[in-house]
Amino acid sequence: MIAYLEHFVHGNDTESRTDDDVTSLCKALDLQGSINCGPVDVACKDFGGVKSVEPLAFVRPSSTDDVARLVRAAGGSSNLTVAARGNGHSINGQAMADGGIVMDMRSMEEKIQVLRINGLAYADVSGGVLWEDVLKRCVSGFGLAPRSWTDYLSLTVGGTLSNAGVSGQAFRYGPQTTNVTELEVVTGKGDTVICSESDNSELFFGVLGGLGQFGIITRARVLLQPAPDMVRWIRLVYTEFEDFTRDAELLVTRPEGKSFDYVEGFVFVNSDDLINGWPTVPLDPDHGFDPSHIPPNSGPVLYCLEVALHCWNYDLPSNIDTAVNRLLGPLRFVERLKFQVDLSYTEFLLRVKRAEQHAEANGIWNAPHPWLNMFVSKSGIADFDRLVFRSIVKDGVGGPMLIYPMLRSKWDSRTSVVLPEGGEIFYLVALLRFSPPYPKGPPVENLLAQNHEIIQRCLNRGIDFKLYLPHYKTQEDWKRHFGNQWTRFVERKANFDPMAILAPGQRIFTRISQP
């Protein structure tokens, strides 16, 4: 069967392959799903749009057994690799397999089962399910919801758990990787393993944040909590970075019940630019931004602290107002530049979905997205503001420039996620470009060069940072990224994917050929 597979995908007769050939290959592998051989557009590109490679086959598995069979077959070949593709939102080709096999995890049977174990609620979810579907099922059917989210929910469960999964709830509950208690994983050996903190723990923690290097997540057990009915969503404007970070750090270090339930922030341009400036701040189109409240000596960029408070239908509006005013009391925002709306919990969590629809209508959703995502330590964040926000990107990036603090103690150091080295507080920084494609927008090469300049300036300045959703071209760069965790990462690779079959698009390890 292995010889047949290699002949099929490596032969020179691609043009002559027929549907019967594909059917024969499925039978040879005993797959219930389907295989498309040759280039398939969806498998050749991703959301980033800056890289495109052709796999030899695009597989739509229907079950965990299909995934395991395919990985075992690849392991028995001379040099096949396998990449698991969720909803294709990687940005540097991380879910691609040049000359290998790409698996569409969205094609697997969609399962979302709510369980109660020892008084706690969980959702058992297939790895290829979108978080937005988890939200809708758990809230509408059970009044429950996961504790930690990403801003954009059209991402797969397995995809975000392979990275970290962060949003404005991470300061309280940690990333999504901290809120999963059990996984079903297909390793690079083709073994299907159930793992948790107590069983097969090295695989469990390795896969969480492991960039797909050790196994493919086919099921996850996610911790749930009661879902609120409503959210009061508030944006506060700052002119001084020091005041902005002081208040953000104050909120994320307060105990539960004495702070907001969501804390994020972003930088915007001090101008009337429709894409990068004042108009991006109000939450309601009927609420205008009055720049007369900005001091005339303010700099080229301003800062917005974004917070939200969970509310229930039985809460009196006056009590919500009182609670919000108490929380806002110590903060140093510009008093006349506060914006707020009340909306349902589901609407709040799906807020980026509306932005997606708007971007699709404007033709920029499918344009290249050379994004840059970083974790920056508290010790370096003021320098970062001066070097980057107020200098390199002071005119904006054509999309959100996120910045908000998180707490190291909410992250589990046993996972494969790498954080900045020092201090309890560190910041997520994300430059989320939504520029029109060239020639209406700048060439992608210029934006990638700007990313490189930002990283190089941070290195030269000695800023303590790590890339989030990392991508490097050499193993030496990866070694520097992982630092003292590199040895553990290599050992996990040797244990769970010794032939380096999985996630070739990350370019961390080289496939070991069979003799």
Give a verbal description of the structure.
It is a single chain. By secondary structure, the protein is an alpha+beta fold. Among the domains are: 2-108 and 496-506, Uridine Diphospho-n-acetylenolpyruvylglucosamine Reductase, domain 2, CATH 3.30.43; 112-226, Uridine Diphospho-n-acetylenolpyruvylglucosamine Reductase, domain 3 (2-Layer Sandwich); 229-349, FAD-linked oxidases, C-terminal domain (Vanillyl-alcohol Oxidase, Chain A, domain 3, 3-Layer(aba) Sandwich). The chain is 30% helix and 22% strand. The chain has 16 helices and 18 strands. The protein has helices spanning 2-10, 19-29, 41-44, 64-75, 131-142, 157-161, 170-173, 201-207, 241-253, 317-328, 345-349, 351-361, 378-392, 444-461, 475-482, 486-496; strands at residues 34-37, 57-60, 82-85, 101-104, 112-117, 120-126, 144-146, 180-187, 192-196, 215-226, 230-238, 262-269, 301-311, 338-344, 372-377, 401-407, 425-431, 465-467. Strands 14-11-13-12-16-17-15-18 form an 8-stranded antiparallel β-sheet. Strands 5, 6, 7, 8, 9 and 10 form a 6-stranded antiparallel β-sheet that branches. A hairpin with a 2-residue loop joins strand 5 and strand 6 (120-126). Helix 13 packs across helix 14. The chain is globular. The two termini are 17 Å apart. The model is unreliable at 12-17 (pLDDT under 50). Keywords: FAD, Flavoprotein, Oxidoreductase. Its EC number is 1.5.99.12. One of its GO terms (biological process) is cytokinin metabolic process.
